[in-house]
Amino acid sequence: MKELRHITAKHPWKNYELGLPVIEKAGVAHKIDFRESQALPVLDELMQEEKYRGWFDFVFVDADKENYMNYHKRVMELVRVGGVIGYDNTLWSGTVVAEPEYPVSEYVMEMKDRFLELNRHLAADPRIEICQLSISDGLTLCRRIS
């Protein structure tokens, strides 16, 4: 089995400190490489190393929403054919499928257009098969087929 890697962007919830005791209890801490950083520069670093191209089995994206299209460009290079990419929040409070009946912030409405663009792009990308799940704020799973 390949070594597991996890890359996390700076996050106010302190994912590392929260998850580390669970990871240690499971006995897999030696398989995880935590990197606290902005995600795009780390992905760019990984793309510079040939060994990481097509290396990852699974990538989960739940980062700065403005850059989901940039993440897709990069992780498609890093995930293997047959691997899966998960994009969180792709229904964006339901606003990408319906106009909200309640007032939402300007940020939510601005991001709605970005998620609509991402969803259209993913649906048209011939390198992947997708499945969009309506759980919580939406989750899109993409299986790389080429």
Automatic annotation (TrEMBL):
GO biological process terms, semicolon-separated: methylation
Pfam families, per the entry: Methyltransf_3 (PF01596)
PROSITE patterns associated with the record: SAM_OMT_I
Keyword Transferase found: yes
Any one GO molecular function term: O-methyltransferase activity
SUPFAM superfamilies for this protein: S-adenosyl-L-methionine-dependent methyltransferases
Keywords linked to the UniProt accession: Methyltransferase, S-adenosyl-L-methionine, Transferase
Superkingdom: Eukaryota
Gene3D superfamilies recorded: Vaccinia Virus protein VP39
Keyword S-adenosyl-L-methionine: yes
Family affiliation: Belongs to the class I-like SAM-binding methyltransferase superfamily. Cation-dependent O-methyltransferase family.
Name recorded for this polypeptide: Caffeoyl-CoA O-methyltransferase
